[in-house]
Write a structure and sequence with these properties.
globular; Rossmann fold; binds zinc ion; alpha/beta; 4-stranded parallel beta sheet; 6 strands
Length: about 230
């Protein structure tokens, strides 16, 4: 959303190289960035960051000690957000990671529950998948959040040691065991007390739970969670 060029110059550039909305493909106006206003308004913001014991916190805090939890949007199978996440994960539109991360960071800055965060950790992607995709989308989101909150990003702390691709056929417990075994904490973080785990979309919470468990095995930490979209 940051822009350094003037509106007049942007309008001129748009005439030659029209930019399109990633949500609905409409031509963007000079004051719009990545999404048209109508797609922006259609996104279901949660406001979960304004209440500590919100439904997401309640869902996750039964599994591990949690300071705070929020999601920028509610995730729906259809609609603008699922299109953005699809483009980010499977279509190489990596710029959406920064765009969504900056939006998430603005919400975290408005909340009193995330102001003692002193480090950010993205949910890891298996190295093979990261190589294939070219990036880890959770890391792009986390990078933008770390930049705006002015705290360090620790992207080499958690590692995915197993490529867990076909877990859909497994039962809930087996799935949880597989994911827990797939994530390892490979580095201790010095001088951090309250870390924020970041992912793109949270559905069951199993992956974030596995990340939290591996971190807590290595050191005593306060942990919070922020995601771009969640299903409750
Ligand atoms: Zn649109």
């Amino acid at each position: 959303m940051k822009k350094s060029i003037s509106p007049l110059f942007q309008s001129f550039i748009d005439l030659i190289f029209p930019r399109h909305c990633y949500g609905c493909s409409a031509a963007l106006r000079f004051y719009e960035n990545k999404l048209c206003l109508s797609c922006q308004i259609s996104l279901p913001l949660t406001s979960l960051h304004l209440t500590r014991e919100n439904p997401l916190y309640q869902k996750l805090s039964t599994r591990f000690p949690l300071e705070a939890a929020t999601s920028l949007f509610y995730f729906e199978k259809e609609g603008v957000l699922s299109r953005l996440i699809y483009l980010l994960k499977y279509n190489g539109v990596y710029q959406l990671g920064t765009f969504l991360g900056e939006w998430l960071a603005e919400h975290l800055k408005e909340s009193p529950f995330f102001d003692s965060i002193d480090g950010i950790i993205p949910v890891p992607l298996h190295p093979k998948r990261k190589r294939k995709r070219g990036y880890n989308q959770a890391e792009l989101i986390a990078e933008a959040v770390a930049h705006l909150l002015k705290v360090p990003l620790y992207s080499e702390v958690l590692m995915r040691i197993r490529n867990t691709t076909s877990l859909v056929l497994l039962g809930e417990k087996e799935r949880e065991n597989e994911i827990t075994a797939a994530i390892r904490c490979i580095k201790k973080i010095e001088n951090a007390q309250h870390l924020l785990l970041i992912d793109d979309v949270l559905t069951t919470g199993t992956t974030l739970n596995a990340c939290a468990q591996s971190l807590r095995k290595e050191q005593t930490l306060k942990l919070s969670i922020a995601v771009v979209g969640c299903r409750l």
